[in-house]
Amino acid sequence: MSTARQTQTAARPAHAGGIVVLDFGGQYTQLIARRVREMNVYSTILPCSTPLKEIEALEPAGLVLSGGPSSVYAPDAPVCDPKVLQLGKPILGICYGMQWLTHQLKGKVDPAERREYGPAELEVKDGSQLLAGLPPRLKIWASHGDHIVELPPGFRTVGTTRNAIAAAEDPRRNIYAVQFHPEVHHTEHGTDMLRNFVLRICRADTTWNPRSFIERTVEDIRARVGEQGHAVCALSGGVDSTVAATLVDRALGKRLTCVFVDNGLLRRDEFSTTLALMRKRLGLTLVGVDASAPFLEQLRGIEDPEEKRRRIGNLFIRIFEEEAHKLGQVEFLVQGTLYPDVIESVSVRGPSATIKTHHNVGGLPAEMKLKLIEPLRELFKDEVRVIGRELGLPEEILLRQPFPGPGLAVRVVGEITPERLEMVRGADAIVEEEIRRAGLYEKLWQAFAVLLPVRSVGVMGDQRSYGYAVAIRAVHSEDGMTADWARLPAELLERLSARIVNEVPGVNRVVYDISSKPPGTIEWE
Fold first, then answer.
1. Which among 63, 224, 335, 418 has most CB atoms closer than 10 A?
2. Could you tell me if 177 and 234 lie in one domain?
3. Domain CATH number, residue 423
């Protein structure tokens, strides 16, 4: 191999040959990147406003323009640099992405007389590269109020629904577009469409896998922290923070110290059992900090859930900074932030809405002494579990259900008091015990109890009672972005209700939450 060739190879970005997804604010944007990664192809999501040089620097094999809620002809419509069309890379526009391509390339987009939301039937035309190998008719999932009236010059229609041009392409310029969502499960053969684009048209590198992710992440952490740098890790004992800690431990070894904080909002016996588990099974350098008093003082009288999260996030950071100061020259803080945390907290990927502030993202203080390392920031929960298995973590950790960073603060709706925390701890312990006994723990995404700020009249021991209500929440989900309520057996619900009312003082009523996400979130706050 020549010297010039070696230099060129060495200079190539680690994730070159992948797919860049430009986000125009679509609710399914994260699923596009997810589907690409399922093909062992690296993908990253960037705001649609990302400068062209940053996109070019990634040396992508192709680009996907996401959907979004806006209209391309609106004054404040999100746009990307039109020069992305001159990069010579294959481009796939999805929903708003198709409309932006049409508008930019001198086609015509108008409001539709009949909008398409939900299921529709696609009729596939012959000769399409994007839809090659698919049945002539298939069910798709649409979500648009505008439609394509006239395609740009050079495009041909390759798919239609009753009301719209649903798919078009210009193979000469390597531009493809669909007016529906191939990334969602509701679209038949949607993954095949994306596979046609990613693997056949873009010929993307299929080198993204758990092992390569770990190797690249470890290299990146070492390069960023340096040979002498130190870090502390915010460890909770959950899947995310444990995988993040293990990854960084592999990169830094004894230069990483994990800090587990008892914020007074943990589940029953969680502080002692987690400390023992982490030390015994993982061998991490670990410090336990009892900070329950300052956390509960910060939350005294606070009812607004966003304010709860902000106060918890700020205090966590201050405690980690104090612990870092005790250890000496520590510059970095490791967090197990996942992609759903980022999406729901702040609009960092495009003009999407803030759903709720996660304490470890939007709840962070404006000024921090420590620099963040978030190795899992672009991953989903199930992807993190795959990484954890590759790292050799025990199943008892990897299969733990998610527990919110703010802890029971978001499971006591309204004001937090020691009495209310004890109620929700007792109810939550019963829910976990019965769910495990029924053999459902590993089949559910989450199952937990919520204490409601509602008191109602009851009869207990032939006397009038005036107690609190507990809601039981159990859901199925793939990644936490969407969820469906679990159809628990009636006998199990009956057992849960009886035990909670009989064993948790102050509670006289139990209800079951049958809301999906959306419209609800998984946690109540």
1. 335
2. no
3. 3.30.300.10
Whether residue 267 lies inside any domain: the answer is yes
Residues with Cβ < 8 Å from 121, sequence gap 6 or more?
137, 138, 139, 140, 161, 162
Pairing status of strand 484-485 against strand 507-512: unpaired
Domain range enclosing 501? 411-512
Task: With a cut of 50, say whether residue 9 has pLDDT above it.
Answer: no
Q: Which of 158, 173, 201 is the last residue of a domain?
A: 201
Average pLDDT, the chain: 88
Among residues 436, 460, 456, which one has the least CA distance to residue 447? 436
Q: What is the pLDDT of residue 112?
A: 66
Lowest mean pLDDT among 114-123, 203-212, 270-279, 339-348: 339-348
Q: Are residues 372 and 422 in the same domain?
A: no
DSSP H stretches of helix in 112-261? 190-195, 210-225, 239-252
Q: 3-state DSSP call for residue 260?
A: strand
Q: Is 49 exposed, middle or buried (0-12, 13-18, 19+ CB in 10 A)?
A: middle
List alpha helices for 233-332, DSSP H.
239-252, 270-277, 292-298, 305-327
Cβ within 8 Å of residue 420, ≥6 positions away? 412, 451, 468
Measured distance CA(94)–CA(118) in Å, rounded:
15
pLDDT at residue 519, as a whole number: 81
| pLDDT attached to residue 186 | 83
Give the span between the Cα atoms of 170 and 156, in whole angstroms.
7
Average pLDDT of span 287-302: 95
Q: Quick one: 381 and 418 in the same domain?
A: no
Residues 74 and 190 placed together within one structural domain of the fold: yes
- What are the start-end ranges of the E strands in 299-400? 332-334, 371-373
In this structure, the answer to whether residues 271 and 364 fall within a common structural domain is: yes
How many domains are contained in the chain?
A: 3
Please identify which residue in the block is written with the tokens 């909770």. 236
pLDDT tens for each residue of 122-158: 999 999 999 999 999 999 988 767 878 899 999 999 9
SS3 2: coil
Distance CA 324, CA 101 (A): 50
Rounded Cα distance between 200 and 131, Å, is: 11
- Residues 390 and 419 both lie in one domain: no
Q: Which residue has the higher pLDDT, 270 or 344?
A: 270
Using omega within 30 degrees of 0 as the cis cutoff, is the peptide bond preceding 519 cis?
yes
- Whether 182 and 235 map to the same domain: the answer is no
pLDDT, tens only, 12-48: 566 789 999 999 988 788 889 889 999 999 998 899 9
Q: Do 29 and 167 fall into the same domain?
A: yes
Taking each helix axis from N to C terminus, what angle separates 418-437 and 490-503, rounded to the nearest 10 degrees? 150
Q: What is the CATH number of the domain that holds 134?
A: 3.40.50.880
